[in-house]
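Problem 12. The chain below contains 166 residues. Write out its predicted structure in token notation.
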Amino acid sequence: MILTIDGRNAGPADPYDDIRPATDADIARVKEVTDAAYGHYVERIGVVPAPMEDDHGANVAAGRVFVTGDPVVGVLVLLPEPDHLFLDSIAVHPDAKGTGLGRRLLAYVEVHAHRLGLPEVRLYTNAKMWENRRMYPRFGYELVERRVEGPYDRFHYRKEIAGQPS
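Solution.
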């Protein structure tokens, strides 16, 4: 809750006010966090995960990247589409693992979709990232399909956002 200067209730505080659009000054740290979060998968999946190959500068310039922390420890890459919000990447620096940050970022994705008036969130994860394959259903994401795209074997998920037209 936020109080006015005279102590009256000014309404609830935004629980996600620490998640903000990335700026040019964040680009190097966005890459560092992304590489740190995904780097351990290279050996397991046999290919560099797509988020590590992204043009982070272009994504920041396009307004697709959201960050949290000082220094940045959490990164989201979100792509609004006409009928859904695509979660292209979620990355938490290993130093912040176990703090609940990943859960907060995932919740923010739904809030952001709702604010944009989009009825669902879509995402995919590599078939060999089994931790993610166990996690997303626990947060209400349903498996839509498994699809091989180039060197990537991906599980595609979706989640309808409450209060939005489907």
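Discussion. The helical segments are 27-38, 41-45, 50-53, 56-61, 101-115, 130-138. Students who got a different answer should revisit the alignment rule from Section 12.3.
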